[in-house]
Amino acid sequence: MNALDNASIKDENSKGFASFVFPEAKSSKTGVSVRYAPCEERGWYVLRIKYGKAQAVADAIIEDGTYVYLAKVWKDIRNKETGKKQRKLLPFMNLLFAYVTEQEAEKYVRNSRESRYTTYYYNHFDTGVNGYNPPLVISSRDMEPLVKATALLDEHVMEVDLKTCHFVSDELVRVTFGPFEGITGRVARIARQKRVVIYIKGLQSGLTTAYIPSHFLEKVETND
């Protein structure tokens, strides 16, 4: 299994997840790999990929020497011929997260072979000086819980529309034990269970953990 399929990011020398250790990104076609290296000039640009093309675009960008993360979640897809549902591992919101500079992002969106499948995911909660929504760029701090949750390949991790979530309260909580330890979010009732919803500012959908017992949660104090 390669890193683009949500490879594990557990640190064998510490309890739970490392503070921020991304898996190596490896092309599923050629074996070419790129390691995550923090850089002040780069940010996590969110790219919207044409349905069915996410892995191919990810492979091409990796071969170009750029680090990407393709978050995937299990979804129930109905077979058009049989009418039966099948579980498939699919990209979260058909998005690809690329750790690039502004110039590199423009290259992949405007001036590359992948441009025909790739567009920006725009931040509809912000407006630039030109009056338009800018491309969404996520901080490494906000990427961490998304990577932690999807790297597990847990079948109970779900993609949810934040507008329809029934949040129990506005309180921010942190998971203190188990495979989701360290993840923060808000508690919501989903599929008749209380789960922690991971949400990133600018995205219309979020991710849920599996069911988390109340005694594995602690309130996160804020300055608000």
Topology:
Blueprint: E1 25-26, E2 33-34, E3 43-49, H1 54-63, E4 67-69, E5 72-78, E6 85-91, E7 95-100, H2 102-110, E8 118-120, E9 137-138, H3 140-151, E10 158-161, E11 173-175, E12 184-190, E13 193-198, E14 205-211, E15 217-219
Structure description:
14% of the residues lie in helices and 31% in strands. The protein starts with 24 loop residues before the first strand and ends in a 5-residue tail after the last strand. It is α+β, with helices and mostly antiparallel strands and 224 residues long. The strands form four sheets. Strands 10-14-13-12-11-15 form a six-stranded antiparallel β-sheet. A hairpin with a 2-residue loop joins strand 12 and strand 13. The chain has helices spanning 54-63, 102-110, 140-151; strands at residues 25-26, 33-34, 43-49, 67-69, 72-78, 85-91, 95-100, 118-120, 137-138, 158-161, 173-175, 184-190, 193-198, 205-211, 217-219.
